[in-house]
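question for whoever is on the cluster today: can someone run the full assembly for these? two chains, 1059 residues total. i dont have access anymore since they changed the login thing
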Amino acid sequence: MNKKLWEASLHQKRNSNLFRFEKFLAKKFNYIPEQNFKKLFNWTIKNPKMFWSSIWEYSNLKGLKKDKFYLPKNIMKSKFLIQSKLNFAENLLSKNDNSKAVTFISENGYREEKSWRELNYNTIKVVNFLNKIKIKEKDRIAAYTVNQIETVESFLATSAIGAIWSSCSPDFGTQGVIERFSQIKPKLLIITDRYYYNGKEINVLERLPNILKKIKSIKNILIINYPGKRNLKPNKIHGVKIFFYKNLKNKKETEISYKKFDFDKELAILYSSGTTGKPKCICHRAGGVLLQHLKEHKLHCNVKEGDNIFYFTTCGWMMWNWLITFLASKASIVLFEGFPMYKKNDLLFKIAEKERISLFGISAKYIDQLKKLNLKINNKYKLKYMKTICSTGSPLSPDSFDYVYKNIKKNVHLASIAGGTDLVSCFVLGNIYSPVYKGQIQNNGLGMNTDVFSEKGKSLINKKGELVCKSAFPSMPIYFWNDKNNQKYKSAYFKRFKDVWHHGDYAEKKPNGGYIIYGRSDTTLNPGGVRLGTAEIYSEVEKFKEIKESIVVGQSWDNDVRIILFIVMSKNFLLTDVLFDKIKSQIRKNASPRHVPSKIIVVKDIPRTKSGKVVELAVKNTIEGNKIKNIEALANPEALNQFRNLKELSF
Amino acid sequence: MLKDLIKNLKPSSTLMINEASKKIEEQGKKIFKFGFGQSPFSVPQDVVEELKKNSYQNKYLPIQGLNQLREVVAKYTSSKKNYEYNSSNVLIGPGSKELMFLLQIIFDGEIILPAPSWVSYAPQAILGRNKIQIVQTKRENNWFPTGQEIEEIIFKDDKKNYLLFLNSPNNPSGQVCERLDEISQIAKKYKLIILSDEIYSELCFKSNFKSISSFCPEKTIISNGLSKWCGAGGWRLGYFIIPDSLNDINKMINVLASETFSAVSAPIQYAAIKAYKNDHRKYITKSKNILKAVGEYVYSNLKSNKILINKPQGGFYLMPEFLNNKFESSSEMCNNILSNTGIALLPGSDFGFKPDRMLARLSFTDFDGQKFMDQIDENEKIDNDTIKKLAPKIVEGVDILNKWSESL
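^ ran it for u. tokens below:
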């Protein structure tokens, strides 16, 4: 059922960026603004060149724009704004005054703030350093850092000179870092000396010798101190030069002339989750990412100059890249580092209230967690400035939609958004024109001809299938690193359907343009040959306060597949027969009889990736005795041990 | 000892930019001659042969031109315009420039010049002591005046005679006038005649070139010649076609001609008969295809958010506008471009635009047209690789201009 939970007021719609953009189009083209998302969307699909070019103009980007496109049927070969030139950093740093640009807050409340002027100044400082150690265009710079202001400055400086950025957060272990960075041969490693998680201090610097042993390309190290703490001193290492961030000197320049690079200039290398093998190195382009993010931030998130943007992320997740680009919309960003519930379950809301956050971004899992704890946020915080809540990482369950409106804020634009590292952006997300319906992502991204396909490649409505994108978009990867003839790139997205991006999400499109995502399609369950998404089971299981977490996998059994549900019990609860039956009957009733698990097994912990995604595939492989392809992607690989040789699964 | 009227005239900017270019070239720097609009093609061989054959012709010819030539011109033009002209309507001159000058001398009234206009119309009007009314045109109107804009000028004093210079395809904009019907209505309504400068008409990229003369033939003087389509600028042969209704003008230009140039060089006139009599469609088609391809190459590779250009529709030129606040005037900007990049352009101010509009004329003829023509077939599609091979200076110049524009 489509239950409408929220809709923007007429006033909000009329004052939205989306409407401003429509009026902008009307001035230039034969287009009539009607505050109708579907109409605008259809126009963007019909006129991709005009649309993407207009995003540049609407955003007033600095640079040289050429309206040249190459949009062949084979969308992998598409080119946008060919020969256009810009500098990514220059466009993120277009503001240069004393107002607030970026704020850092650690789990224990330590806070730092930098103005646009300081951010500009410090970026130039890092640019000078990079020039001094002779970093050139296209050289790789690896960052193993905390989500702190210095990381942002380093990223900006890297892109300013046309070098390529790649970052991992310190919760990645040595092996995970080596596995990623060794593939791209960085010349410089930027590292934060330590970090804190739930009050515990963890020394990162002591991992340095092992990393350097395995990545010989690193000749320079830049050490950043954890905000508010003194630098930890590393032991001497032969063959590499060590620099300290706080000792970087500036040459008194307050402005530099930014070299303008091609629209397709490499910006950053991000990594696939690595759950199906060695992490793939996805190389993204500066112009394409900037344009896509500006579209999503301004038009879909309605972000305006001076807004305060928060996203709960580390620099090892694509949402970090997404967060930083908000600077291009002249909004200020808030970085959080640490455990989001440190000493206080509602820590992030305390921050949101104090920092007057206008866009509050978290993962769906975090909302689930709040829901489980039954926190009534709105009793304590007014969140007056909060206009938008973004949720991503995994599907946001229908109950979580209700929870947000009931317990966090009544009048807020809840935008469930979905995309991926592969595009550092979204296929489907929110917008201010369409209502928010329970359980649904509002609509397509503008210019993104996203659809749901049957196995045979037919468009589906009201039926589950594969999430695909039928149009090219500027933030497609330029290429994968070390990928001869684009073989890996091609097989990652274009193997399944001809000339159509196959994303690997299992989804359903609604007649109103909304989407429901049911999880990754490679983890869908096929009991009796019927394809089921795991999200429907999760959303039922999440309702039980007795259950803390769960993971569902299909076990090959008897020439078929049977559904196995693993659960972690909440404190002081046991899986009783009554509860067992209740779980089953609720799934039967609200999902379908086919969704009912054959087994429900209690475990102590559930393996998840660093960005908090539960890894069904790793569990499936473990219970079936197969090799786990990439254990380093996991935040807690030890959790897998309890899934080995389970007696319950042998009968 | 000079008249005040003359003292204020400056040498043509085309010549000035050539001198500046030469100086830079002497310093050993590469120059891109995007300032001067000369046909890149050679004169068709049969016409050249005919000139050779007739080099012995040494007699004065009739003032209005060789009868045979006037006949073929009348026939050629009538076939294109759906209007019956005969030889008595045709007047041969040493380039159409001279005929326009004489027209200015005899005409009593005001001259309406659209900005942009060819550089010589205004000085000639001054020499003819005619008052000039400039119409600032708009990009969205293809850089041509609208009927209303012309009417607004005439309306102030509709007793006077007016002469409108309409040049389509246009130098410098490279655009074709589309509001012919509307302009002809004004001509019919008022004492307005039109000098239709059609020197680039054979090089209109679309096949159906339309002349204002088709809308109001009785009020239109057609001006044309050999310089552009036949690659024979240096031969100096142009003509007017003046309808019977404007016979007085025809007569008086003849009188002035007899007192000035007497007649056009005889061998040239004999050779010109061949130019209009023989079938040169293949030569013209090839010329057009090459110019269109090169023009569109420049257009599509140069236009950006900082360089506005209308797509070229005919002739040798396009008119980029470099959006910036860096320069005070278009001539300052063109000097900067020339000294920094070696690319010679003519500033928009030379064509009547206000100096603070950062417009310039770019001529895309700095390539060997004969070689280009020899290497392609008549209807061959000319791709970027061909242009890179056969018009390398154009390609290089565009790249350099792009680089230059990044700093704006």
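summary bc i know u wont read the tokens: Chain B has two domains: 10-34+281-406, 45-277. The first strand of chain B starts at residue 90 and ends at 93.
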